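2024-03-11 09:14:02 DEBUG pipeline.ingest accepted 1 chain
2024-03-11 09:14:02 DEBUG pipeline.ingest length=312
2024-03-11 09:14:03 DEBUG pipeline.predict start
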Amino acid sequence: MINNFAAIDFETANRGRNSACAVGIAIVENGKIAKKYSSLIRPPSLNFLPEFIRIHGITAEDVADAPSFEEIWPKVHQICADGLVVAHNAAFDISVLQNNIYNGDLSCLSGKYCCTCNLAKKLLPGLRNHKLGTLAKVFGLNLKHHDALSDAITCAELAMRLFRLAGPKQLEGHIKEFAEFGMSQKNSTNAVCLEISTNELGVSHIDFDTGEGDAVDVAAPDGRFDGKKFVFTGELMFLNRSEATEIVEIQGGRVIGSVSKKTDIVVVGDEVYEAYEESGKTTGKLSKAAQLNDAGGSIEIVSESDFLDMIE
């Protein structure tokens, strides 16, 4: 069983993965949370979008005198350098790491990472969703959601429980090298994150430029969405509609404007998805998809965070 690792969580000011405004880390030693670290972060731009402030409550004024990512990196690197790093929806948090390391020309991590969201989907397929809040309730964990340190602590507690449930075969494919995410060494004194990462079989991931000075790590074209029809509803937090459409099309899918029996997947903005899960509040497209499913349809309804996992 895995007893030593660091769980990490970031909050961002906007859709840019280079806009980290808070970090929380819980360090697990011998199966117990032994140390905690958290800090506000002053991003390069103090462009805090209102919808992000509503989520985490952090404003530009809060971080005006906070250290930059470059200033906290020695401490974060010391904590996470060579061991296992765990995150819930690692496609987001590791991408935040990747972009800030790249933009600051900082030393890269050389260890491994694991996504507790993906592992939970493997081990607990019967749950309605695998969001951190849902899993916290399942395991009786305390969570102050979208507080970076609270999220990191809950992620660490969740990881310990999932690692106890998982056998070696179930962990296969879930413990990944940072190099697989695009973090590789350059022939220089610093390590940077390359725009394309490879493995023995060739290109495995590409960094999709969002135009916000950062990139979203997506799998290289492999046809995973061949023939699939997507509908997007609700405000997306980390991609805009044109970017999401391009990613779907790169993978062989098609984005359509309305929900019908021919729709395969409805992607819902995280904020709307959370409201739908908690109170049933919905949008027209989401309501239509639910009605079709109630009538025997098989439309997959996923959050934007789930979509990011699908394209990783």
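2024-03-11 09:14:41 DEBUG pipeline.report The chain has a mean pLDDT of 83.
2024-03-11 09:14:41 DEBUG pipeline.predict end
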